[in-house]
Write a structure and sequence with these properties.
single chain; about 300 residues; alpha+beta; Immunoglobulin-like; 2 domains; four-stranded antiparallel beta sheet
């Protein structure tokens, strides 16, 4: 069944313990016959019970109990009678009578208004006002308790019961660190040229990666022939082939990775003319036509 605001306020007052003995008996009777109303009372007891756990018990001073006993003793013999508000005196109601020549005027009789219903309505209104005040008091208490609970959750969560403590929030933040800028490596260049004559090839070597690039400047291979690049060093028993120089302007190779830096920096680089596709024996088949040595053009940092 649907319950009015008065029923809800009555349940809240019962949970707060502000009802007198008769009203508590009435609530307990309603709980016994109405399971839904009993559930409302239990819900209020749960809400207010959780808030009650936040408030510690304080023992009043002995003088407080003495003052209460004294006040009860003084008012025990005084019985204050219940005085209902008096209804205003009823105005006599006179009904108009039309005068006739042969008839005598009728005497006007006053009509008294019954005040029993008015008194009953006043009592009902007084009870409703008290219920509304109780609802306002309960709402104010709940609002204050909720504000207090929020403040405790923010500043002192450890003071709350375990069930009311806020759950810890774990947030994962991804921080991206920019990659460090590459450190420029040393650069070496060799001009491969005949004697005398202008450079035919320019050899560039990166010290960090040991990759090299050959740029063709002014040399063209004969038909059916290929230019082949060689590394000649006194640290090696014989020249080492670095591959055939292609027909395009640039030829890049990573084959220097197999040599140490000392060998690379001090070696002589030579170009020979070989059969198409390179030397068939793995060794130069003719004398070098262009040679050169590396010089450092960009220092390492």
């Amino acid at each position: 069944m649907a319950h009015s605001e008065d029923h809800i306020a009555l349940a809240a007052e019962y949970a707060l313990g502000t009802l007198d003995a008769d009203e508590r008996t009435q609530v307990e009777t309603m709980m016994a016959v109405d399971t839904e109303f009993a559930a409302i009372v239990q819900a209020w007891e749960y809400r207010l019970g959780a808030l009650n756990q936040m408030v510690g018990s304080i023992e009043p001073r002995p003088v407080v109990w003495e003052n209460i006993k004294a006040a009860i003793g003084q008012s025990a013999g005084q019985q204050v009678p219940l005085v209902l508000p008096k209804a205003p005196p009823a105005e006599p109601v006179v009904e108009p009578v039309t005068a006739e020549p042969a008839a005598q005027p009728a005497a006007a009789s006053p009509v008294t208004v019954d005040t029993a219903n008015d008194n009953f309505n006043i009592i009902q209104l007084t009870g409703r006002v008290r219920r509304l005040r109780s609802i306002a008091t309960v709402a104010t208490a709940l609002a204050a308790a909720l504000v207090g609970m929020l403040a405790v959750q923010v500043y002192r969560p450890e003071a709350l019961p375990e069930a009311l403590r806020p759950k810890p929030r774990i947030q994962t933040v991804e921080v991206r660190v920019p990659a460090p800028s590459p450190v420029p490596s040393a650069q070496y260049v060799a001009l491969l040229q005949g004697s005398p004559g202008a450079p035919a090839f320019i050899l560039t070597v990166d010290a960090a990666t040991k990759n090299f690039t050959v740029r063709k400047v002014g040399a063209d291979a004969e038909r059916g022939k290929s230019f082949e690049l060689w590394l000649i060093s006194d640290r090696l028993p014989q020249p080492r082939s670095l591959g055939v120089i292609g027909g395009s302007d640039f030829t890049a190779r990573p084959v220097l990775a197999g040599f140490d830096a000392g060998t690379i920096n001090t070696a002589t680089y030579a170009v020979t003319v070989e059969p198409a596709g390179g030397s068939p024996t793995g060794q130069p088949t003719s004398a070098p036509v262009y040679t050169g040595k590396l010089i450092e053009t960009v220092p390492a940092r």
